[in-house]
Amino acid sequence: MFAEDSFADVVAEAARYGIEVIPFFAGPAHTSMLPRVLPRVSAKDETGQPTGYGYCLTGDEAVAGLKAVITAFLDQHVAPTNIRRVGVQGDEFFPIRNLDPLDRDRVVSPYCRCPTCRELSPADLLLRYFALWRDLLRARGLGVVHWQDSLVREHALDRLAQELADATPGEVTISWWGYNDPLPEPTPNRRWRTWVTPSTGLISTLLPQDLTLNIAQWIDTAARVGADGILAYTTLPASSGRNVAALADAAWGGDRHERTAFARRWARQVSRAHAVLIERAEDIAGSVLGSYPLMNYLLQQTLPYFAVASGPRTEYVADLMRTLSTPFPALESVIRQTHDTLQAALRSLPADRRGPYGAPDAMELWIAHVRRMVAHLDLVREAVGLARAASSGTEIPSAVTAEWTSRSEALLDAIVAENPAWAAPAITREHLELRDALPGVLDAIRSGRITGVSASAPWHAWLF
Ligand SMILES: [Zn+2]
Predict the structure, then answer these.
(1) DSSP string spanning 373-384?
(2) How far is the CA of 57 from the centre of ligand 1 (A)?
(3) Which of 180, 257, 316, 421 could form a disulfide bond with 307, CB atoms 3.0-4.6 angstroms apart?
(4) Three-state SS across 124-175?
(5) How far is the CA of 230 from the centre of ligand 1 (A)?
C-alpha cells in the first residue's frame, strides 16, 4: 500500500462506507525495520552501536532523523486524505527475548543506552516519543491514539495529563485493550478521549479463538466508564467472522447486545431449520476456543510463535515433546480431550448451512480453521506417542514416520488451499516447523541426545 502510494485511495474508499481509517505507526517498541534501515534513528547499546530495535530519543541526529521520517509519512500518505488521527500505539515498551532469529537468547531492549537516554526512565522515553509525534500532528490539526498498557505499566498517565494541560480536548485518545481477565480498568480523564478495544481475533497465523466474552465485557466496560469509542483491531483471519459479527451486533443492537442473544441470532443466520444444532456446536467448540488459559497457555504453545516467546531458552519441538510427555499432570490428555471436543462440535453441525449476514465464507472458514486445529492437535498428540516410544529405545519404523509426515503435508496443503494468499505463508510456517523438526528430534531422543521424554504413558490413579 505504501510502496504503491495507494493509501489515499483506501481512505477514500473506506469513507464511502462511513469507515474512518486510522493508520498505525509502531513504536517506540514493536519496531525493528526502521531502526535497521536507518541506523541513525535506532536505540544504541552501551557502546553506541545501533541495536536495531526502538529509537534513540535524545540524540540530535536520531531525533532529526525520526522527525524527517514521520514528516515524510505525513506529507506523502496522510496529507492527501481526510484522516483525522494517527495511531501511535506505544504498546509493549519493554525488553524482549527471541527477537533476533540468529540469537534467540539475546534480550533486545527498546530503551536507548546512549549517554543521555540512559539517564531517562522508560516513562521519560515513552512520553518524549509521544510528545515528538504530538507536535508534528498538532501542526496539521491531527489527533493521536495511544494504547494504554505502557502508560499504565510505567505509571505515566498523570504525567501525560499534565503535558496535555493546554491541549485541545479530544486531541489525544487512549484506547484500552486486554485479551484476558481481569480486563484493565480504564481511567477516563478530561484531557483525553477514552476508547476501549475489544479483541476480535489475535494473530491470523494462530489457532482460532472465540472472543465473544471479551467483546461483551469491553462493551459493558465502555458503557460503565462512559467511553466515547470502541475500536477493535485484528489481522483478520476470516474464521474470526463470528467475533467481528458479535462486535457489530453490539454496535448496532443497542440494548440487544446480550451475548447469548447474539449467539442465537448468529445460529439462525447460519441455519434457520437447525439453529439449535448450530448454537449447540458453537457452544461445544466455545468450551475450548473461548478458554483463554487453555488456548493461550497450552494449545497455542504447540505452535512455534508462542513456544519460543518465553525464556530463557526454548527448543521448539524437543521441549514440546518433553513437556507433553510428562506423566503428571497429563497434558497429553488435555490435547486429546481438546481434539475430541472440537471434533464432536464439527460432527454435530447440520449439513444445510449458509453464509451468515451475507458473508458466504464466514462459517465455512471457521469450520476449516477448527479442522486445521483438530488436525494439528492430532499430529502433536501422535508425535508425543512417537517421542515416548523413541525414549524407550524402540526403533520407529520409517513407514510410521513417513505416514506422520504425509499427514502433516496434507495439513499444509489444506492451509494453502483454504486461506487467502497473504495469510497462507505465515500460517503454514507455524505448522511447517513441527513437520521439519520432528524426525530429527525422534532420532535425537532415541540416541539419548535429548533426554527427559518419559517412556511411561499417563495413568489414572483410581480412588477406591
Ligand atoms: Zn539515545
Answers:
(1) HHHHHHHHHHHH
(2) 5
(3) 316
(4) HHHHHHHHHHHHHHHCCCCEEEEECHHHHHCCCHHHHHHHCCCCCCCCEEEE
(5) 35
111 vs 321: CA distance, rounded Å? 36
Backbone angles phi, psi at 108, to 5 degrees: -105, 125
> How far is residue 415's CA from residue 337's CA, in Å, rounded to a whole number?
23
C-alpha of residue 63 to centroid of ligand 1, in Å: 9
Smallest CA-to-CA distance from 192 within 257, 236, 146 is with 146
Please give the distance, rounded to the nearest whole angstrom, from the Cα atom of residue 127 to the centre of ligand 1.
Answer: 14
Shortest CA distance to 379 belongs to which of 346, 338, 410, 408? Answer: 408
Q: What is the value of pTM for the model shown?
A: 0.92
Q: What is the pLDDT of residue 463?
A: 58
| Locus of grid cell 519493554 | 94
C-alpha–C-alpha distance, residues 196 and 36, integer Å:
33
Q: How far is the CA of 308 from the centre of ligand 1 (A)?
A: 29
Tell me, what's the pLDDT at 254? Answer: 59
Distance 120 CA to ligand 1 centre (A): 9
CA 121–ligand 1 middle distance (angstroms): 12
Does the domain at 7-274 match CATH 3.20.20.80? Answer given as yes
Surrounding ion ligand 1 within 5 Å at CB are 56, 58-59, 112, 114, 117
Q: How far is the CA of 71 from the centre of ligand 1 (A)?
A: 20
- The rounded Å distance from CA 56 to ligand 1 centre is 4
How far apart CA 107 and CA 157 sit, in angstroms, is 27
Q: In angstroms, rounded to a whole number, what is the distance separating the alpha carbons of residues 174 and 195?
A: 6
**108 C-alpha to center of ligand 1: Å?**
15
Mean pLDDT by 10 residues, the chain (464 residues): 83 93 92 93 96 96 98 94 95 86 84 98 98 96 97 98 92 96 95 95 88 93 92 77 89 71 93 95 97 96 81 82 89 96 97 88 90 97 95 91 96 92 89 93 93 71 58
Q: Where are the domains of the chain?
A: 7-274, 283-446
